[in-house]
Amino acid sequence: MLLPVVQDALTVRSQRRLAARSELLEWAAVAALALVLLRHDLAEGPPAYRWVFTVCLLAPLLWRRRAPLTVFAVVAAVAAVQWWLDVVALADIALPVALYGVASRDGRAWPVAGGAVVMEVGAVLAAQRWSPAGSEWTIFVLLSGTTVAALATGLAVRTRAQYVAALVDRAARAERERDQLARIAVVTERGRIAREMHDIVAHTLSVMIALANGAAYTMDSEPAKARSAVEQAARLGSTAQAEMRRLLGVLRVEPADGSAPQPDTASLDDLLAAVRLAGLPTRFVVVGKAPQLAASAQLTIYRLVQEALTNVVRHAGPGATATVTLSWQDRRLNLEVVDDGHGGTGNPGHGLTGMRERAALFGGELDAGSGPDGGWRVHAVLDFAEPAP
């Protein structure tokens, strides 16, 4: 965070130094031009006050950057007095320079148009009074060309400055949008990790608690069955630990090596075996042929079944049974998990919310409630059709 701030400060400082250096060079150039023209005025002869017009025409140019319209107005007024007194001065070159300042720095249309009109009127008056006989038109064209050149150059400079400013603004907006997208991606990833952690911890702990209770009840009467339950609980704990390590590894800068792959639909058999061993007889019915699915789609199916069975283990009570049905119609899936226990809870917490969010990722819907024959029913419709191009 500190480096961009330092870079911005250095950039601003360098720009200020460049502006100060440019202004100093401009002062030096005006002073040098004034000296040359003053020497010419002194050598030219009467009127003796010609040098006053030279100073009055050139001096305002030193403030051309700060107040271009005011500078042009002062220079034009001095030039009008000069014409009225019939004094010829080479310092009239200050007029197109001042007009260039207005065109390059004032974004309004009327000062530029007004300056051009004043310059053209001055060109007509100068050509009429100071041109040799028969060359009035030629002098007027030359003076008009000077006006056009000053206007065109000033407008081109201002257009380029606006273009550069637009590029800088667009780059700044792109950087802000990139940061916002990065923050959104982080929030999305955190939400995904939170859902995964909930599914892993809630399911594993529920099954491990059921296995531990079963082992405690059968430890004396059926030690072999109790030992098998304890071993299964240990395996479930190891699997959950590996999955949590994989998810937490996403938060690190470097990916964790040897992380376990995401569960898929092929892992449903292991999930059902663990649930059955925990004391919940579960049937698994597949209708139709499952299509080839992406890993994210298979993970969604696995997590929906896992969360639904976890709720059955928690709330269905002893003696309950469950049925998991996957009914395929092309790439459309009807997923149903029902049990005949005591019914679900009216406040399922974050689990049901996470299930609905997972279903919504594939344009699906999920509802949960009491089954037609008692117990609890979770039903989801998922559409894994390829998006239209």
- Radius of gyration over C-alpha positions, nearest whole angstrom: 43 Å
Structural class: alpha+beta
Total of DSSP H or I helical runs spanning 4+ residues: 10
User: In which order are the strands of the major sheet placed?
Assistant: 1-2-3-5-4
Distance between the termini: 41 Å
Describe the main β-sheet briefly.
5 strands, mixed
Q: Helicity level, as a percent range? A: 55-70%
- Overall geometry comes to rod-shaped
Strand content is 5-15%
Order of helices and strands: HHHHHHHHEHEEHEE
Low-pLDDT sequence parts: 1-10, 253-260
**Mean pLDDT across all amino acids:** 77
Structure description:
The chain has helices at residues 2-44, 50-58, 68-84, 94-105, 109-130, 136-218, 223-249, 268-277, 295-315, 350-361; strands at 282-287, 322-329, 332-339, 365-370, 376-383. The protein is of the alpha+beta class and 389 residues long. Among the domains are: 2-130, no CATH class; 266-389, Heat Shock Protein 90 (2-Layer Sandwich). It has a 5-stranded mixed beta sheet with strand order 1-2-3-5-4, covered by helices on one side. Mean pLDDT is 77; it is low at 1-10 and 253-260. Residues 189-254 form the Signal transduction histidine kinase subgroup 3 dimerisation and phosphoacceptor domain.
